[in-house]
Amino acid sequence: MILAALVLVLSLRFKQDERRPDVKIDGVGVVLAALAIIFVSFGFNNLNRWGLGFATPNAPFEIAGLSPVPVMIVVGVVVLQLFVRRCRQVAAAGGTPLLDLRVVLSPTERAAVVAMFSVVALKAMLNFTVPLYIQIVQGQSPLQTAIAMLPFNLTVFFTAILVVRL
Description:
This protein has 166 residues and is mainly alpha-helical.
């Protein structure tokens, strides 16, 4: 509570940034990106419950006995491709795309994005498995688990910052 109040007080000291009226947020791009993330996330998150091939009894619906998981993942990938196409169209029209695809065009930038993705993916995998081990196998409390994970999370934080320079 005290930390939240301190952050609020310190945030009021930030210098106001000037608005740029020429930059507009691409609403269609936001919706496409959100839909792609939702479909792919729902598909992968419900893989065990709904089944990969054949639908389990837990599946909310089935398509000729098949699980909705592959359909959701494919729809998510298709919507992601529509999002990339939308970004290209907005950039070609002289607007500001939601994601500037020039970021991944140069080999240096692409390598930085892949390196950062690798760090974040590894962190996500370890942040899922290690706390399970600490709490279930070792029988530690959630607070003890959080304290045990602190050095790892700080290392990943600084690695993500420094990997761009590499």
